[in-house]
Give the backbone structure.
Amino acid sequence: MEGTEKKSLFSAVQPSGAVTIGNYIGAIRNFVKLQEEYSCIYAVADLHAITVKQEPAALRRNTLGLMALFIACGIDPEKCVLFVQSHVPAHAELAWVLNTVAYPGELSRMTQFKDKSAKHAENVNMGLMDYPVLMAADILLYQAALVPVGADQKQHLELTRDLAIRFNNRYGDTFTVPDGYIPKGSGARIMSLADPSRKMSKSDENPNGFVTMDDDRDTVIRKFKRAVTDSDTEVRFDPEHKPGVSNLLTVYCAFTGKGTEEAEREFAGRGYGDFKLAVGETVADALAPVQAEKARLLADKAYLSDVIAKGADRAFRIARKTLSKVYRKVGFYRGE
Ligand code: AQP
């Protein structure tokens, strides 16, 4: 059966730093799982990344690195549309139109805007506030029915749905109203290893808070050994009373496929030292083949350039259709 009957799915990751195991567990591993069932469109969200200051050379490097990582993690560029967001101008164009149905009040209430404004007080810019409108444009352009994201993006997804409904009500049926695909349970939100009350973030100032998909074995094990736990010794899943240990159990289960009870039994009576080492070794073992494949891909610039060019072309064709429809609906003159 041809893939044309499959529902569309869209998601993206920002090249705003080295991708963390939080991004992987919350989002990227689901991208891989869903590629058989859906018509998948995945972007490297560079337009989003510049809402906080980026060093231009690092942004270029991270963009290529993320494209290679997607493929190394198992996303097949033949099955999915894989592209760089800024290569398809329709994202910025639709965001402009959607701005006219978005309200400053709702945007300034977004948790991510408030968090990032506090964190980057020297650079609170309109792009930061408009981030969710651009994200809505990303999703709606592809008429995506499903959006696999981590729990931190739930609020933005709700706004996407609101904007789609608002636009459809004003101009007539135009956009598919998407649903979120957020991992069940704690995998949807991996917490910082240094402060389990905050989510793990690739732009965290404290590098001990996150483990990146590029970290070498010693670094991974060192970071897990230093992870904040508690003064108890029992390895038990209890996010409220034992957030640090529970977070490590979530990571361990994500990389082994084991359930939390099974993992609790495995570490019963073994103490935190043993447990942290086992989590570190498990993650390091899982990352090694991905890192090797990513390095191989990065050495093959011709292949990556080809994937990126083809992806932009395929994304552009889909996006152009929706944008033309939007321009017609709002009344832009397109000739008689
Ligand atoms: N800690 C997390 N646990 C689970 N999922 C997460 N995601 C992010 N952090 C976690 C999910 O990863 C996908 C890509 O995220 P993004 O790069 O678009 O932006 P983000 O959510 O802002 O991620 P970061 O790592 O915190 O980036 P910075 O530091 O640049 O802001 C999304 O699906 C997200 O839900």
